[in-house]
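job 3f2a | input accepted
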Amino acid sequence: MFSFFSHLKDIHYDWDVLELRPLSTEDCKVLSNSLKKSGIPVVEFFCFGNWYVEVRGRSFDEYFESLSSRVKNTVKRKSNKFKKIDGSRVDIVTEYSELDKAISAYEKVYNSSWKVTEPYPEFIPGLIRTAERCGALRLGLAYIGDEVIAAQLWIVADNTAYIFKLAYDESYKKLSAGTILTTTLMKHVINVDKVAVVDYLCGDDPYKKEWMSSRRERWGVMAFNTSTPRGMLEMIRHKSVYYIKQLVDKMKDVYEKFR
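job 3f2a | predicted structure (259 res):
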């Protein structure tokens, strides 16, 4: 790694800024130190919090009992209400025979949700098809009759269930179909797939810690080529922001001590 970064420093004009992310806290430190030893200025930066739960061989029922009373009561109440609606059901799509219909249902829900329009419309359908070919697809769809009202895209790989995309039709928000889907998919990946970890990926959304038990951080490293005008300017800009933030954090600590 050190020789690679030393070579990178010698390539004076072929790059300005190198951004590496997301990384574990440990990997971030290793990369940052290797870059510094090669004489390349760097700034480390926070990317996002990552919530996850280690199953530790538990059944779904055992996992469910570990959740807060509020979450358990909400799940039971909303599940009973959903089951009483005529035509209500949840499908978990994993196989090719159902794929085209499932993709159309997912896109219909997504377009009816609060989500920002996908910048690359073919990416998610392509990801779903690739995951199905690898045996990794777990696409949950909640229906009332023929109307799809919520969708969740999970991917199972490396003994881990990754919760990738969530969406629901806002006109059915009161039914909490997202909660129903999360419960159903969680039960499937724990009892059927027997995963070791369920990972909510990026973000500190409040609802994630209701289902997960642990949090870790993902960081990034920005490296600067000071041999180019843009590389130098970007280094000055980001270093300034970095040191100002550190100063503000120290001032906050002092304030808390003497308050």
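job 3f2a | The mean pLDDT is 92.
job 3f2a | closed
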